[in-house]
Structures are given as C-alpha cells and as structure tokens.
Amino acid sequence: MSKINQDRLVQHFVDLVKINSESGNEKAIAEVLAEQLAEMGFRVEKLPVTAEVSNGFNLYANLPGDLEGSILLSSHMDTVTPGNDIEPVIENGIIRSAGNTILGGDDKSGIAAIMEAVRSIKEQGLKHKTIELAFTVHEEGGLHGSKQFDMSHVESKNCIVLDSGGPIGTIITVAPGQQNIKVNITGRPAHAGLAPEEGINALTVAADAISNMKLSRIDEETTANIGVVKGGQATNIVMPDLFINAEARSTNDDKLAAQVEHMIKTFEAAAEKHGAKIEIISTRAYNAFQMDDNDPLVEEVKAAFAEAGVAGKTMPTGGGSDANIFSEKGIRTVNLSTGMAKVHTTEEYIAIDDMAGITKFMHTYLTR
Predict the structure, then answer these.
(1) Residue ranges of the Peptidase M20 dimerisation domain (predicted)?
(2) Residues 292-320: tens digit of each pLDDT
(3) Pick from 29, 25, 34, 24: which is nearest to 13 by CA?
(4) pTM value > 0.90
C-alpha cells in the first residue's frame, strides 16, 4: 500500500484554501505554488495569460523520472465565488467551510493530492515516471486558463486531470461540448399606462420564444438552459431591451448543433412575430471529449486504482473541465474524482479519507 503523510496532506489543503483565489485573482496562490514546487525539485515555468483572464499566470512544472513514461497532471488554482476568506472546519473526518463561503476543494483538493503524492515518493526515494504539472488559472466559467496554456512545454502524450466529484475511483471518460448563446432583443418603449399598444415588449418576445423552446434535459446526451436574463427600467415603461445568456451542451456534436439551431430559430421566429429586432451571438465554449474504456491510459489508471485497493469505474459527466481543452489540444486525457462534494455551494465538503484515497492512487500510479 502506498504510504502518504495524511496530516501533511490535510494541512497543505487547509493552507491552500485559505489563500484567496477567485477566478481572475490567482496571482497569490500561483506564486505560493511556484515556490513550493521549486523547493520540491521541480523545474517551474510561469506561463503568462492575458490580463482579462487573470492577474496571475499558469504554472508548468517538470520533474524528470527514472521510470519509463511521463504524465501530465492538472488541477486548476481558481475557485468560484464566494471564495474569499475561507475558514475550513474539520469535524469527524470531514473538511467543510464555516458556512458563508465555498470550501475550495474544487480544485485545491487536486493540487494537494498531486503534491503530497510527489512529496511522499521523494521522501521514500522511490523511482517514478517523469511528472509534468499544469496548474491553471480561471477554469471556472469558461476554461480560460487551459485555453491559453502554452503546450510547447509539454512532452507527455497522456494527461490526468483531478477535478471531479463522486466516489474515489471515478474515471470521467466522456464530457460534453458547450455552446454559449447571447441574445439581445430590441423592442420599442412606450408608456405602460398611456399607450402600451405603441410599444413592443422585449420580455414578451423572450417569453414567447422560451415557451416554444426545448430546454433542460433534452436527452441522455444533451441539455440546454437559460441562465441569465437582464432587462427593464421601470414598471411604467414597456420593456424596450432584454439580454439573455443561454447555453446548450451535448456529448454528441450533431445533437449539439441541432439544439443550438433550434434555440436560435425559435428566438428569431418570436422576434419576427412581434416586430422586434434581435441579435444573437453563438460561440463554442469548448468541445466534447470521449475516451474508449479500453484505451491504454484508461486501463493503466484502472490498474493503478486496483493496486491501491479501489475499483476504478468509467463514467460520463455533464460538466466541462480542463480535460476538454487538453483533449482538444491532442493529449489523451481522463478526469478523476478527488471526492469533492456539493461544489459551487456554501455546503461544499470533502472527506479526509477520500483525499487520502486519491493521493494514494496518485502515489501508486506515478511509481508503477
């Protein structure tokens, strides 16, 4: 059984979640991790990103190994909001926040697991694969850091992302592509009490469209959602303008294209019916990825889980992650669970046993 220092793992995780790093504000944690990785013997590169993405930088690190093969390991450094001034609480083997913020297990549990596995391996003088790290900024809300990650540094052909929930042993091999749809509806203002018939209410147009639109769960591979609606000035003004931000996801590119076309045509038909103007911008956020269950990387991961005493199980997910981007960039990629639970909420938590479990897997995988 792989030996790790569980107390050090937990302490490092706690220290990391106390560093404020909401998306776009990762400079502090990136500097801390760069220093820690250098102390561990990694060659560290601070990879720049645009100012719109982060005040920090992506991190690439390389630790040459004695065993055959190399692997790119990845987690993201940012958190969702509310993620500032996190107070982690440890009770009965569970780490959670004090309740007024998220915890940040998404994704600092992944960073802590990777670094403790490497620390333990080095302490024990064990031979290991060549280890490459990609710690990214601004993953939440668009996978922006990984999109700008300079892949010229990366030698590995395989990648393991630690950024999923579920039982330890969960291997995400299928994830959807996502299309963003931004809609601006322009009606015509009028006094709502004196001459409402002279106006064109942008909300009426939107309501007509949405009532005729297939949304939520479309099928087992496809979903769609209206996430943001903004408009209106006052109750006595017929609403002249409305902005809608929507999305569609599918693991099937043809189904995704069909759903997006359906949503756009439904918006356009409603605008024409009511005499409103409409502007729609449809952009691909990221592409789907899919790995076969018998892919050599998947089989290698399953074998390492088995050696660590865990049953590995492949599963699909409805969420995107940096795994989508690294896969698109030509690296065979899987995404593994760290045991994080209720992420993106103030009820987020992680079990210490699960953190130890994924760390032991990582220790085993790197030394096989």
Answers:
(1) 179-273
(2) 999 999 999 999 999 999 999 999 999 99
(3) 29
(4) yes
> What confidence score (pLDDT) does residue 2 get?
78
β-strands 289-290, 94-97 pairing? unpaired
| Tokens representing residue 109 in the block | 């549990």
Percentage of the chain beyond pLDDT 90 is: 99
Cα 185 → chain centroid: 30
pLDDT higher than threshold 80 for residue 263: yes
Chain center to CA of 47: 19
The size of the chain, in residues, is: 368
Helix (H), strand (E), coil (C) string for the chain:
CCCCCHHHHHHHHHHHHCCCCECCCCHHHHHHHHHHHHHCCCEEEEEECCCCCCCCEEEEEEECCCCCCEEEEEEECCECCCCCCCCEEEECCEEEECCCCCCCHHHHHHHHHHHHHHHHHHHCCCCCCEEEEEEECCCCCCCHHHHCCCHHHCCCCEEEEEEEECCCCEEEEEECEEEEEEEEEECECCECCCCHHHCECHHHHHHHHHHCCCCEEEECCEEEEEEEEEECCCCCECCCEEEEEEEEEECCHHHHHHHHHHHHHHHHHHHHHHCCEEEEEEEEEECCEECCCCCHHHHHHHHHHHHCCCCCEEEECCCCCHHHHHHHCCCEEEEEEEEEECCCCCCCEEEHHHHHHHHHHHHHHHCC
Show the tokens assigned to 292.
């076969």
Q: What is the mean pLDDT of residues 104-127?
A: 98
The reply to whether omega before 85 is within 30° of 0 (cis) is no
Q: Which two tokens stand for residue 60?
A: 């690439």
The whole-angstrom separation of Cα 72 and Cα 60 is: 10
